[in-house]
User: What shape does this take?
Amino acid sequence: MSDILTIGVDHGYAAMKTAHFAFPTGLVEYDHEPYTQQNVLEYGGKFYVAGSGRQPLQKDKTLTEDYYLLTLAAIAKELAYRNTGHAASVHLAAGLPLTSFGRDKKKFRAYLLRDGRPVFFRFEGTAYTVNTTDVSLFPQGYAAVLTQPELLGEPSVILADIGGWTVDLMRLDNQIPNAATCRSLELGMIRCLDEIAEQVRRALGLSMTAAQIESCLRGESGSTGEQVREIIHREAGAYTRRLLSAITESGLDTRAMPAVFLGGGAALLKRHVSATDGLCRPLILDDVCLNAKGYERLVGQLSRGVKVGG
Assistant: This one.
């Protein structure tokens, strides 16, 4: 475990993301080995199936062990993908909303670091030994924008990170987050999906799953009828208009500067956000793993002495 691996993890309300994976935050506990090894984490004498549905809303992710267990699953997936062996020293790179960054940074870092002690667990039947040597935390969204060279010359940019429960807003001035502009709106995609499901239920008496609705929003072919698709896209358009209105009410003028949309919600709403909405220049970053990739890049820049945002 001589080489230290940097692994970025984006701890979303609806999904966990690494540089190469995204999976739902659901976690089901078993006292005995479950029927499958797929996505099964064994830790502390118990078994957990990761990625089954989504977590109940946890505004403080350190209150339970759930997000730590999901982090172990995320690390195991990345180690297997990178083929770096089953014993590793890891520099964990993660993020927090800028609105709560100063308040939650110390607590969340301690939650993930666990005093740097080696952790032993099994994932999908494979034994892992992971020593988290350090945890670096960055503002969500900010890291992702720094991966886009076409934006680095813009004097001011609006950033909207559309997550499961919240939409985190900030303005970057000369690549530096303006803390006074940061807002966290409880208008994430969970609200959008729930409203769509309710409208389909009222109009057609059908109970759609979130997976079905998300598939339709991505434009994937399936068995969804035309009436259902019309309702889904109509409500998604209405949600997008509400979101743009809320951004304006937060004091960020999308007509005056480029607006960057990222996160899982950006990928689902890509066809509903355009310049016809009065935006100066919308940019949709639909790679849901972009935050995690950005966290890893920032750790690399800092380790080389590169000035972040400069």
About this structure: The radius of gyration is 20 Å.
